[in-house]
Design a protein that fits this description.
- By secondary structure, the chain is α/β, with parallel strands linked by helices.
- The chain folds into three domains: 225 residues, Aminohydrolase, N-terminal nucleophile (Ntn) domain (Glutamine Phosphoribosylpyrophosphate, subunit 1, domain 1); 180 residues, Glucose-6-phosphate isomerase like protein, domain 1 (Rossmann fold); 138 residues, Rossmann fold (3-Layer(aba) Sandwich), CATH 3.40.50.
- The chain is built from 18 helices and 25 strands.
- The chain has an eight-stranded antiparallel beta sheet with strand order 3-2-4-1-10-9-11-15, with helices on one face. Strands 5-6-7-8-12-13-14 form a seven-stranded antiparallel beta sheet.
- The longest helix has 21 residues.
- The chain is globular.
- The protein binds 6-O-phosphono-alpha-D-glucopyranose.
Length: 621
């Protein structure tokens, strides 16, 4: 395995990311076949893809002429302990971690699923649209179902094809051809214990090429510990995986496709928590590096991106969740500095704006995963109406990146914590590069020195991370409060929204972010003795107005935590952030808020990496 500093990886990943795909429908798959026991590999891989879904988990191995399945509802660690997964043994096995779509969260609906005769086991990521019809037909033919999932039909279909006398590959191929919808599927067989068959349509699958040991997974991070050679399956490809060889076929006509493995540029360190207690904390601490990597952009792509906005008849900017907050910052700068009118909308609300999508319109989409259903729906509607779609996305191999006319990468490496942290700060950097390029084209910005800016920003993030102990103190004071408010003006307003979102996601404390100017129009009624309010108030034109609002709140009993590059006695508590160029202030302002949410979650005994009810990539509307 190669060793090297993380920033090298991120430069390399301009390439790598073309192959890096993130979830379409959440759920994680891992499979391994070898001449030795593969359960440690399957179990380890399962834990790595847990970010994709975590309501149930299970493993199947082909052993002693049967398929042994252990599965159940709950996080992998719980299922592992309860069902003693690590005591299983087998030379070929599959694992699955689930985020329920069809069928409730229960032991019976956890994957893997087995066919009636116990010949075939299946794990699946996606949705089989025609499963009801398929299930009815299979029931009529006498098949017995043991779950309420759409997935189980696949095992029965393959069994039918085997009964018809087809070999394992053809039986799988014929069964897959009957499916409509999205799927990444892996199968193992009782009577062919050195074979895994996998196939994909609109959901990611990647093969790991090892020595006498091969893998299949939803994400290469599942096997990077064992091999850094990967083959990315394309849509409608089927893979035959054996310990010593891998073959790939086109599902359309069964013809073999020759594909060479690509060398992955990740380090194991990228997908482990290292010395940190959680991925979220690790990702917060990675930001001095990731903000710098975000500056590595292809100059001609950046110029094309900028000029598409500059020459557009109208500009729309969109995203969901944290990505929407980053998109607000771009819209702000375009309006205020480049004097380009831009409409900013939440992707799920695109219908309010779609009547203006037409030829000459540009839609700028922000997304970490590139797979968020709301975002994809908005940009598809825009494309349908003739608009150009440009995107800022972390997963360059994702659907959004592929469907965009131009996609700029974030280069921040895999983000595993469900709550977005380093992807937000990278989004701010990349959108600033776009706006600066536009300003340069307009002639109002000269002598840009991105490298120097990257260095300064990286050092500023390092400095602001030093507030950690101060944040911990605040957490010990306010962790039992039911409500938090986050206020700011102008360019820091999206940071207030982001601070509130982080706190809700991780701590489950109710939080609201709003413009400080709005307090007097209602929310002030909720301020009472001891109510915590975070005021993000950088020096500059809005500073004194927000300070007046701080006084108004303190007069009504609020405890105001000021976050600024300028200290003021009005705040109850104060976190100093470094003064940097105003366009980068959100990057340093958000770090204490990320830490606040993280430590609040820890204090309240929540798992910050896997907040309840949420998923990293929401691929349903
Ligand atoms: C989910 C995640 C959020 C994320 C949002 C948008 O809700 O839990 O953290 O901000 O999706 O995701 P995207 O991948 O499009 O940035």
């Amino acid at each position: 395995m190669k060793k090297g500093p993380i920033n090298c990886i991120n430069i390399l990943c301009l390439n790598l990311y073309d192959a890096y795909t993130m979830p379409k429908i959440v759920c994680g798959i891992i499979g391994c076949t070898s001449d030795e026991n593969v359960v440690p590999e399957v179990l380890g891989g399962l834990k790595r893809v847990e970010y994709r879904g975590y309501d149930s988990a299970g493993i199947v191995v082909a052993v002693n002429g049967r398929l042994e399945v252990r599965k159940g509802a709950g996080r992998i660690e719980d299922v592992e302990k309860r069902l003693k997964l690590s005591s299983m043994k087998g030379k070929t096995g599959l694992g699955h971690t689930r985020w329920a779509t069809h069928g409730n969260v229960s032991d019976r609906n956890a994957h893997p699923h087995i066919s009636c005769m116990g010949e075939v086991a299946v794990v699946h990521n996606g949705i089989i649209d025609n499963y009801i019809q398929l299930k009815e037909e299979l029931l009529k033919r006498g098949h017995k179902f043991r779950s309420d999932t759409d997935t189980e039909v696949i095992a029965h279909l393959v069994e039918e094809e085997l009964k018809a006398g087809r070999d394992y590959l053809h039986a799988s191929l014929f069964a897959f051809k009957k499916l409509s919808g999205q799927y990444a599927v892996a199968l193992i067989f009782r009577d062919m214990p050195d074979l895994i068959v996998g196939a994909r349509k609109d959901a990611p699958l990647v093969l790991g090429v090892g020595k006498g040991k091969n893998f299949i997974a939803s994400d290469a991070i599942a096997f990077i510990e064992y091999t850094d050679k990967a083959i990315f399956l394309d849509n409608m490809e089927l893979a035959e995986i054996r310990p010593e060889r891998i073959r790939i076929y086109r599902m359309e006509d069964g013809r073999e496709v020759k594909k060479s493995p690509v060398q992955l540029a990740w380090e194991v360190a990228d997908i482990t928590k290292k010395e940190h207690a959680h991925f979220t904390l690790k990702e917060i601490h990675e930001q001095p590096l990731t903000v710098r990597s975000a500056f590595y952009q292809d100059p001609s792509k950046l110029r094309d991106f900028a000029s598409s906005i500059l020459t557009a008849k109208s500009v729309f900017i969109t995203g969901a969740g944290t990505s929407f907050h980053a998109s607000m910052l771009m819209a702000y700068r375009l309006r205020n500095e480049a004097r380009i009118r831009s409409e900013n909308f939440l992707s799920g609300e695109y219908r309010q704006f779609s009547q203006w999508f037409e030829k000459g319109t540009v839609v700028v989409a922000f997304s970490q995963s590139g797979e968020t259903a709301d975002v994809l729906e908005a940009v598809r509607e825009a494309k349908k109406k003739g608009a150009m779609v440009v995107s800022i996305v972390n997963a360059v191999g994702s659907t959004l990146a592929r469907e965009s006319d131009i996609a700029l990468p974030l280069n921040c490496g895999p983000e595993i914590g469900v709550a977005a942290t380093k992807s937000f700060t990278a989004q701010v950097v990349v959108s600033n590069l776009v706006v600066d390029t536009i300003l340069e084209m307009q002639g109002s910005l000269r002598n840009r020195a991105d490298e120097k800016e990257g260095e300064i920003l990286s050092r500023a993030v390092e400095r602001v991370l030093e507030c950690e102990s101060q944040v911990k103190e605040l957490v010990s004071m306010y962790s039992n409060k039911p409500d938090f408010y986050f206020v700011a003006r102008g360019y820091s307003y999206p940071v207030a929204l982001e601070g509130a979102l982080k706190l809700k996601e991780l701590s489950y404390i109710h939080a609201e972010g709003m413009p400080a100017s709005e307090l007097k129009h209602g929310t002030l009624a909720l301020i009472e003795e001891g109510t915590p309010v975070v005021a993000i108030n950088p020096s500059g034109e809005n500073h004194s107005d927000t300070l007046s609002n701080v006084e108004e709140m303190v007069a009504r009993g609020a405890h105001v935590i000021g976050i600024s590059d300028e200290a003021s006695k009005q705040y109850t508590h104060f976190i100093m952030v470094p003064k940097i160029e105003s366009k980068y202030m959100p990057v340093v302002e958000v770090v204490p808020l990320q830490l606040l949410a993280y430590y609040m979650a820890v204090e309240r005994e929540n798992d910050p990496d896997y907040p309840r009810n949420l998923a990293k990539s929401v691929t349903v509307k």
